[in-house]
Amino acid sequence: MKTLTLVRHAKSSWKDRGLSDRERPLNKRGEHDAPLMARYVAEAGVRPSQIISSPAVRAWTTARIFARELGYPVEFLQREDGLYLASLDNLLDVVATQDVGFNNLMLFAHNPGLTDFANYLVPGLTNNLPTSGVVSVNFDSDDWMLYDRPRTELVLSDYPKKHL
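^ that's the sequence the OP posted. Answer follows.
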């Protein structure tokens, strides 16, 4: 049994127009929403054995917040260039390369790729995975090869505005 959790980075700031897209930090709402959603993930019983993030500051910061909240060693976080603005195909490729010894993988990345991936795993799930949105699924497999859509069980589909 494998568990795959997709997390869209928390809300980012557009305040400093001089920053490149990769350098944009979280804004105040993002700083509030990320730990809140991490706690909901923990309450759902999701415990990642590996966390991989896009190198963009907003994704990396979100991953660090989740790691702290989930008790995952921050020093074990991994950056993966292939997750930056990745399409569904790129996301499938990144997942396929993961070590089969890890049974619970958590990815931090961007839209529209994450929404496409969420709908690939759970057809018709969402029109848009919001910032700080989380989708977690279980599936029966010995590896991370998801090119043939697996039959999944939805563990969690959540986002901050659900809790307002």
